[in-house]
Amino acid sequence: MKRTWRFWVALWVGKLITIGLQVSGRKGTTLPGKIAQWIDPDIMKHLSASFSEGIAIVTGTNGKTTTANLLANILRVAGKSFAFNQAGANLVTGISGALLQTTSWNGSSRTKLALLEVDEATVPKFCNQVTPTLAIITNFFRDQLDRYGELDTTVRLVKESLSPETLLVLNADDPLVAQFGSNGLQSCYYGVESTPDSCRESTETREAKFCPACGRELVYSLFHYGQLGVYSCQGCGFHRPEPAVLAQNVLAEDGLLNFQVGNTHFATSLQGYYNLYNALAALTAARQLGVEDSLIVKGLREFIPQAGRMERFNLKEGEVTLTLVKNPTGFNQVIQTILSVDKPVRVMIGINDLAADGRDISWLWDVDFERFGLREEQIQQVICYGLRAEDMALRLKYAGIPEEKLVLEPTVSTALNLLQRDRLGGERVFILPTYTLLFSTREVLEELQKNASHAAIKDKSYGEGART
User: Fold this and answer.
1) What pathway or pathways are given for this protein in its record (predicted)?
2) Is 360 annotated in the active site?
3) What is the pLDDT of residue 381?
4) 134, 357, 380, 412: which could join 434 in a potential S-S bond, CB 3.0 to 4.6 Å?
């Protein structure tokens, strides 16, 4: 592929900006990619040509970041080096920036493999320049309709963008994803036999109530969550494909999510049965990339949850779990995880309506907060913060949470102080922010964790001094 003068200027300017950001202590990949894209709109095409072992992408509505980071950890354990947009910058500019970082000044890549998280709405732009070797598709749920439009449109655009040359790693339990393999494309499916939460009937909102092939209503013999489960169409015969990677004997125990595939036992520290799908996607892709099961076991077991994905912080008052919420199905699974805790619970919910969150917050009325209301004896307190704290509190009031348990506090720091002040021993704490509140909340938690760690070291040193 011939590289033009635009490519060389874009490459060198992008790398100079990257160095400048690193010297100033900033980690940004978006700015170098944005400038490089402006200089050479085909920069991704030129950069991707250097990865001789191919490019693996992860896309879908929920679980992209966790799946990509799980797979990255497995690849590291296997001793592989690769380009990776670990910061989660999954639009064209962030992807370009990540590729720039592993490209030398002479235009050659320092790694043979690339692993990229790609926003589902960015897949068409990405695949217009790059043909992925492997594509993981996690699931499809309604997410920020004001940004992405109707779900059918998103699914269609992703489906039309992928090349027949790309091996698809597909969630068999989601009919919207499983349909991708029905056109004779190279496909490998993963799925779940059952979880302790699986049921024969469901009142949850389902995105795929009707067959994607003929439009007839799907029949389910088992629901896992949302539209994920064991389904079939009695009209055209469309049905859940047989997964090549099937999770069995699923159990959450002692802080680990345990499951079995064939004769091999796996475990990860991720909470929530919905995270089982992320682990299965990473496992399936790792096998396709030639990684042995023994290394996959190690990679999953040693994985540390990334920013805001059931991430745990050890504060002076006890452990706090932080997790991102952004759409009804994901929020419902977080609620299920919270209520499965056999302890009193305090919750902080942060709702913003900035562009990255989605301006339309009507989706909150599709979340099953009534489950909190039915278990209000377990829910000790809910603090609502963020720009739309009042809207969140109103939704919870209608869900049956007593007013005396609802607290309004728009700012993160004050909300956390209130939460920790009233916390009793033995209670679990969960903090659930939307995207633009995630990192500011995380920064406060990191500072509190650091202070708690320093205080513990200080107390220990005082104790040792007293003994001497």
Assistant:
1) Cell wall biogenesis; peptidoglycan biosynthesis
2) yes
3) 92
4) 357
Residue numbers in the chain where pLDDT is lower than 70: 1, 27-29, 87-88, 143-149, 184, 203-207, 308, 454-468
Can you say which residues are annotated as belonging to the binding site for Zn(2+)?
A: 211, 214, 233, 236
- Residue 363 has a CB neighbour count (10 Å cut-off) of 18
> For residue 324, what is the domain's CATH number?
3.90.190.20
Total of domains in the chain: 2
Query: What integer pLDDT is reported at residue 148 of this predicted model?
Result: 47
Annotated active-site residue in 360, 366, 368, 391 = 360
Q: Which of 283, 301, 319 is the last residue of a domain?
A: 301
- pLDDT one-digit tens code per residue, 327-344: 888 898 899 889 888 889
Residues 155 and 131 reside in one and the same domain: yes
Dist CA 13 CA 34 (whole Å): 11
Range(s) of the domain holding residue 149:
5-301
Instruction: Check residue 341 and give its pLDDT.
Output: 84
What pLDDT shows up at residue 221?
93
Query: Which residue among 233, 268, 301 closes a domain?
Result: 301
343 and 211 share one domain: no
